[in-house]
Amino acid sequence: MATENQNVKYVVTRSPKSMGAAIALAFFFGPLGMLYATIPGAIVMFFVNLIVGLLTLGLGLLITFPIGIIWAAVATSTYNKKLISGRM
Q1: What angle do CA 32, 24, 54 make, to 5 degrees?
Q2: CB-side exposure of 78: number of CA atoms within 13 Å?
Q3: Which residues cross the membrane (predicted)?
Q4: What is the pTM of this model?
Q5: What percent of the chain has pLDDT over 70?
Q6: Phi, psi of 10 (to 5 degrees)
Q7: Given phi > 0 = left and psi -120 to 50 = alpha, else beta, which region is 14?
Q8: How many whole angstroms separate alpha carbon 78 and alpha carbon 68?
Q9: What pLDDT is stored for residue 51 in this prediction?
Q10: Contacts of 35 (CB under 8 A, 6+ apart)
Q11: For the chain, what is the radius of gyration of the CA atoms?
Q12: What are the Cα distances from residue 34, in Å, to 38, 54, 57, 63?
């Protein structure tokens, strides 16, 4: 056990996120799949898809779904870069 004079060091480890999994989940499940890569991005894209889908009778999803996939890939890449550099 540590006493008052000893320094206790903790190491918190996180594993990197898989780029392939992020892209596949966003491709097959849309904003729900984006939850793996970015929670705020998934919430934003859920509402964007809902509004665009209703206004364009679903045709706008041909544009918003690929945007979500790209967003998931960029978010995963950013997460992994921050993890490697130790800024997390």
Answers
A1: 40
A2: 9
A3: 21-48, 54-79
A4: 0.84
A5: 91
A6: -115, 140
A7: beta
A8: 15
A9: 98
A10: 25, 42
A11: 18
A12: 6, 21, 23, 16
Say if residues 31 and 68 touch (Cβ distance below 8 Å): yes
Q: Looking at residues 32-50, what average pLDDT do you find?
A: 97
Residue type, 63: I
Separation between Cα atoms, residue 88 and residue 77, nearest integer Å: 14
Name the amino acid, one letter, at 40: P
Sign, CA dihedral 33-38-84-74, equals: positive
> What DSSP assignment string belongs to 21-43?
HHHHHHHHHTHHHHTTT-HHHHH
Instruction: Give the Cβ contact number of residue 17 at 10 Å.
Output: 18
